[in-house]
Design goal:
Number of strands: 9
Distance between the termini: 27 Å
Largest sheet: 3 strands, antiparallel
Strand content: 5-15%
Shape: globular
Number of helices: 13
Helix content: 40-55%
Strand order of the largest sheet: 7-8-9
Radius of gyration: 23 Å
Order of helices and strands: HEEEHHEEEHHHHHEEEHHHHH
Length: 429
Amino acid sequence: MAKHGKKYLEAGLKTADVFLQVQQPTGHFPTGAVIRRGGKAKAGGGKHPPHVARMEDGYQFRPFCLLLYAYQLTNEKKYLEGAKRCGEFITGRMQHQKWGWCPDVLDSRKKNPYADKRSRHGGFGVEGGGSLSDYCTTDGLRTAVIMYHLTKDKKHLKAAAGVGNWLFATQLGKGKVRGWGDNYDANNQPVAARQFEGTQIDPRNWNRFAGPMLVWLYVMTGQQKYRNLFEESCEWMLAVEQPDGWGYEYTAEGKPSTTMGYKLYLYEEPEKWPKNVKPRYTRGKVQMEDSKQMLALLRKGGRKALRERFRGPVKYGDRQYLQARLDAARRCTDEQFMVKVQPLEKGDGSWIRHGKFIMAKHLDRVRDLRSVLSQDAAIHRSEDDALRRERAGHLSRIRHEVKPRCAGLVDLRLHLALACDGHDTERCQ
């Protein structure tokens, strides 16, 4: 292995070891950790006390994937066992056994957190109800599928099997309107989580959560109802798109609206809005490019075309995979593809100043990264054949040392596992 490659591997494994140190007895990861010199760590300092499991924002799914990747690279059992403990907690405790949804947060001390049929809302989402917000249920579904392919135990699919029905039960639109709210109680009724997250349709939930899950469910099951709902939702989202994007929310009848201070405001009634606040459309966290691609593939080649897309370039060699990742990184740092940030209204100076600071900071980082990628490309072009053979040989050894059933599930190729159903699982082993 090249010297710099070993350095980065060791740094990544140190991070994985920190997660193992702070992993709770139940299997979940806390929202914060205190790390001492020398690498020793303990849970604490997060948004919640260590006994509270937070599902949204990747607090469980990201370390789960990191541990699996660490196992894939090292074949050390401790990483696989840590990931499995987390997966067992998610599918056995966090996912609702009937509907498959996941809450924002869950108190791991409670034996049956959904028995009282109540939901509490506050600054950090809903407890006791399902959430689409920030990948809660999406990550639950992905975890369950990965755990099934790791263990072949169908109990991991059982908890997630209701997600498809839950998407139908929680769809809020009437007539041709299609859409989902951010959070729901245990009875699948929309509830407010924060003062700006109301009970209406949030268009951000389509391209980030509901849309991808409908595609995955259709690919895995072949059931026409998922395809129908996906197509109907795409058509409605495209129909209400404005030059500047979409409204912050929509009513069940399709009227653009927003929520402020837990109160609903309609775009057609601007005179009732708070002073200095005007209705506006936005593309923040809303885009239809992915949905358009899925829709085109679906209408051209049906389920087979989608399965082929999700399988990906599985015949790539080590050098081809490396080049593909470098190319993807360069696309991410290409300024011509950056989305323009819409200016905020005057009168909200704190957000304007904060926004400019964030944009400048990230733009500098993008430029630095693009410079590094250019240097990396030059290094690759100037490598001698001996170094290339050394790298290729090491990568080949890594691939052959990894347990077969774990290979292909992580390393940013989750779509491969999601594209397999009960008749084609050997491709994911």
